[in-house]
């Protein structure tokens, strides 16, 4: 897929994608803890996230995956610890500035007004300082990215759940178009409403954005095989703590699956690829 930033574009664009060294720490979590009432949701999470990778958050229901993602998007207040983005404490960022570098695709996006599809995607242009024609070009490009160009003028509420999810993905990608550093893309179960083919297309796009355009992608997934195939790093949580962290072949062992999900899998290595497949 050809990057929007590698295409011939109008001169109104102020900033192209910045190449960030892959050893740079984009997100750092130090002893992050969250309590809701008396319940511990996250406990002493320590992670360093680098650009150019897809990091998948895995675990059973209630493990803390979505809560961890919501900490990164500041939807949840930390009880203890600190999160830094580009070396700066997350609460110290000005929202409009951070919005150019960090975008979230929630599991469910509620929007009932009869906006057209292209108008929904244009909402992602809010933090950008580009001209109208440049913005229109960007919207068209993101529609291509998610294979929805034919639905550009459809009313958003009439779309299927999967189509709405892809429109929202196009919106957040438009939001990140002028990131000053490695764009940070947070995806909360992005394939939950998609059919099989679209699930793989969306995850392939996420992997391409990370590998070819240096995005920092963090995705919550339930499907272990999809995580194994598309993620570079798996962070497995259980009861609010990290129990395994590493490449799929290291982090997703039969022992870990049995301990966390209480299931004894059959593990088969994908031919010609060090990727475990689970049955």
Short description:
By secondary structure, the chain is α/β, with parallel strands linked by helices.
Number of strands: 12
Largest sheet: 6 strands, mixed
Whole-number radius of gyration? Answer: 19 Å
Report how far the terminal alpha carbons are from each other.
32 Å
Instruction: List low-confidence stretches.
Output: 1-17
Helix content: 25-40%
Principal-axis shape equals globular
The SS-based structural class is alpha/beta
**Number of helical segments?**
9
**In what range is the share of β-strand residues?**
15-25%
- On the 0 to 100 scale, the average pLDDT is 88
What is the H-and-E element order? EEEHEEHEHHHEHEHEEHHEE
**Strand order in the sheet with the most strands:** 6-7-8-3-9-10
Topology (elements, then pairings):
Layout: E1 27-36, E2 39-49, E3 53-58, H1 65-72, E4 80-85, E5 88-89, H2 95-99, E6 102-105, H3 117-122, H4 132-145, H5 161-175, E7 184-188, H6 196-213, E8 216-220, H7 224-230, E9 233-238, E10 241-246, H8 248-251, H9 254-261, E11 267-269, E12 276-278
Parallel strand pairs: 3-8, 3-9, 6-7, 7-8
Antiparallel strand pairs: 1-2, 1-4, 4-5, 9-10, 11-12
Helix pairs in contact: 4-5
